[in-house]
Write a structure and sequence with these properties.
- 85% of the residues lie in helices and 0% in strands.
- By secondary structure, it is mostly helical.
- α2 runs antiparallel to α3 and α2 packs parallel to α5.
Length: 118
């Protein structure tokens, strides 16, 4: 049982570090109101998690990669906070684009990941 917690924890720490690195890189390249870093992370995360759940990985790999790594990599809470910040700035065009594209592209990416993993 302890090994399961270690797998999830180690995977999550790696995923969070990758998310942080991508976020720093993207924010340094594109100065815009649209949260491209979080958008990219969540869309690629949707694809990768879709792929992972549709493959025949063993339960330990699922814990490490699916629950751990992907849980640390993707960020639903940052998506919500950035959405609220756009609302508070009254930047409704970017807000609705961000929310709509995140959900639509996330579903499409997850579907493609699942189809490729089958």
């Amino acid at each position: 049982m302890l090994i399961n917690f270690l797998l999830v924890g180690f995977g999550a720490s790696l995923g969070a570090m990758l998310r942080y690195g991508i976020s720093i890189f993207v924010k340094s390249k594109w100065k815009t109101d649209f949260p491209y870093a979080t958008f990219f992370i969540n869309i690629t995360g949707s694809f990768l998690l879709g792929f992972l759940v549709s493959t025949a990985l063993g339960p330990m790999w699922q814990l490490f990669l699916g629950t751990g790594f992907m849980g640390g990599y993707t960020t639903f809470s940052t998506f919500k906070v950035e959405s609220m910040e756009l609302k508070w700035k009254a930047n409704f065009q970017v807000l609705f684009s961000y929310v709509g594209l995140t959900y639509l592209c996330g579903l499409i990416a997850a579907f493609i990941g699942i189809m490729l993993g089958v």
